[in-house]
Design brief:
By secondary structure, the chain is α/β, with parallel strands linked by helices. The protein has two domains: 218 residues, Rossmann fold (3-Layer(aba) Sandwich), CATH 3.40.50; 34 residues. It contains eight helices and twelve strands. A seven-stranded mixed β-sheet has the order 4-3-2-8-9-11-10.
């Protein structure tokens, strides 16, 4: 498989769902339709779902490139309202949390503010979910607790939940504030990949076996960046071959005195 996710999250999920060609996801903090996307692999297989992305530029790309998906330009929180999104360049650091600004400043990124609507995860599901949710991904740069508190975990129970579990741009754990909410809602801790913590709902405990070991060579994956790089090298090689062919043809024409002939 081709992996698009920044930390191979899609490979681990693909292992759990065993190549299923249909399914449903909810991606909170979707950002780009391809770059670092946890859902792109599944969309290409035939899945569909909900992408939640408050940044206007990224949302526009999702609308353009994910026509089968429901693409919402909102932020999620514990309760509805409005808030200021601090958009950090084209990075994945954009957040409602002002604390993200210090991390952005250290990277030299431009910060622009956008006023956005805030609704709850429960409301999104009530409006747009009619069946099972196979997996829910939450990556909102420090405000994961508020998103989780805004969910209806009795009515809407994704089979797998993965949540970014470190402070933005660091390896410092941040899950202590919200993990208890998921455990109390009947979710079982499954795996930590260094960035995200994965949970399986208790009634789907058989899925835990897929999280017994990290992503490895036996998962048969290749990075999308590698695919792009190889295609670029191939195009350069073809271009070089054409250039060499043209130079050789020119030399032969000169050698046989054909340059002055009219075609």
């Amino acid at each position: 498989m081709i992996t698009y996710a920044q930390n191979l999250e899609d490979v681990l999920l693909a292992r759990a769902f065993c190549g299923r060609s249909t399914g449903f996801y909810v991606d909170v903090g979707a950002m780009h339709p391809d770059v670092d996307s946890v859902t792109k692999h599944f969309y290409d297989l035939g899945w569909h779902g909900i992408n939640i992305e408050p940044a206007a530029s990224h949302h526009a790309l999702l609308v353009e490139q994910r026509p089968r998906d429901t693409n919402l330009r909102v932020a999620l929180g514990e309760r509805p309202g409005r808030a200021t999104l601090h958009r950090v360049g084209t990075t994945g650091l954009s957040s409602l949390d002002p604390a993200v600004l210090s991390a952005a400043a250290s990277l030299g990124e431009k910060i622009e503010d956008e006023d956005v609507e805030v609704i709850t995860l429960a409301e999104v599901c009530r409006r747009h979910v009619s069946g099972e949710i196979d997996f829910l991904k939450i990556d909102v740069e420090g405000l994961e607790e508020q998103v989780i508190r805004g969910g209806d975990w009795k009515r809407f129970r994704p089979r797998i939940v993965l949540v970014e579990a470190t402070r933005p741009g660091t390896t410092t754990p941040s899950f202590e504030a919200w993990e208890g909410l998921l455990l109390d809602a009947g979710y079982l801790f499954a795996f930590f990949d260094g960035l995200n913590r994965f949970y399986v709902r208790r009634e789907s405990a058989e899925l835990l076996r897929h999280f017994s070991h990290p992503v490895c060579v036996f998962d048969d994956w290749v990075s999308q960046r590698t695919v792009v790089a190889e295609a670029y090298v191939e195009s350069l090689s073809a271009r070089l071959t054409r250039m060499k062919s043209k130079r050789l043809s020119s030399r032969l024409r000169r050698a046989f005195g054909l340059d002055g002939e009219r075609s």
